[in-house]
Amino acid sequence: MHHYLGLHKQKLAIMLVATIASAIFYALVFDLKVFTSRGLVDVIGEGGTAACLLTWIVVFLWVRPSGRVTSLIFTGLMLIYFATLQDLLDEFFVIDQYKRFLTFAESVPSTVGMLILTYGFLHWKSEQESFNLSRLRTEKNLREHMAFDHITELYDAPYFEERFGQLLKHPEPMDVSLLLLDIEGYEDFLHQHGRPAANRLLRDAGALMAMSIRDQDLVCRYASDRFAVLLPQASTEIALQIGEDIQQSLSLCRYKVGTQRQMLDSIWISTTIHTQDAHGSVRQILKEANQQLTHKHRARVMVSDTVVA
């Protein structure tokens, strides 16, 4: 397991020196105290607190890289540990004549340490919020990159449905139009020319659709040879115009199959319009739109086997 203790050798040395120096100072200056049962209880309580603080410091330095937040929190914990250590040592030595000084040595570092620790936690909070925001952006980018169809490089159906649902729940009323497009005869074309040529047909058709829509629109490969175009803030008239633009773009499509050049001919675009004031879930709306498209025989994109010299 990777750790950062190697970056904090100076901090660990300070902690070790402070512990040893305090013990030596008490041993040289004060006389040992006779233990009582009450004193033993205090030793256990204060010693346990000091041991916990030492553990916190080591674990914290183990998982944290160097930096401002790390230094602040270490300083705060170290001062609290130092004050607790003084409180522990006075259980072993007679310090009556220096009690006022040692009380100062216990209370002031503890209070200052608490303040520094609190300040460090506030900076840690800001740091964590920045990390969380960065992580959310990264996850969003990953989700969007994973939501692509690998053949057409358009968005896939789940992402399309997610965006459609977001638009339907938008607080401001708007027209949301939907275009569904099929390639008539795609299965015959697939059997005749094979999968690579059929995939290229899908890819070329998808690229032309993407170039024929507005910046705020979304096109995806919905299923097999069926494409869907989501048009936010688009009335029926705008949706029909965009459908005509797609039709004109596809009518000029040229692609090569083996030694022959094929073209898309007799292009027909199917349009299924949905506005926000309609009712139903995304799945219901898309199901109805697909059923409507199935019954629109002329509203298809036709694939012609016309050979162009």
TrEMBL record:
One of its GO terms (cellular component) is plasma membrane. It catalyses: 2 GTP = 3',3'-c-di-GMP + 2 diphosphate. One of its GO terms (molecular function) is diguanylate cyclase activity. Its EC number is 2.7.7.65. The keyword Cytoplasm does not apply. Pfam families: GGDEF. Residues 174-306 form the GGDEF domain. Keywords: Membrane, Transmembrane, Transmembrane helix. GO terms for biological process: cell adhesion involved in single-species biofilm formation; negative regulation of bacterial-type flagellum-dependent cell motility. SUPFAM superfamilies: Nucleotide cyclase. Gene3D superfamilies: 3.30.70.270. The chain crosses the membrane at residues 12-31, 43-63, 69-89, 101-122. This is diguanylate cyclase. It comes from BD1-7 clade bacterium.
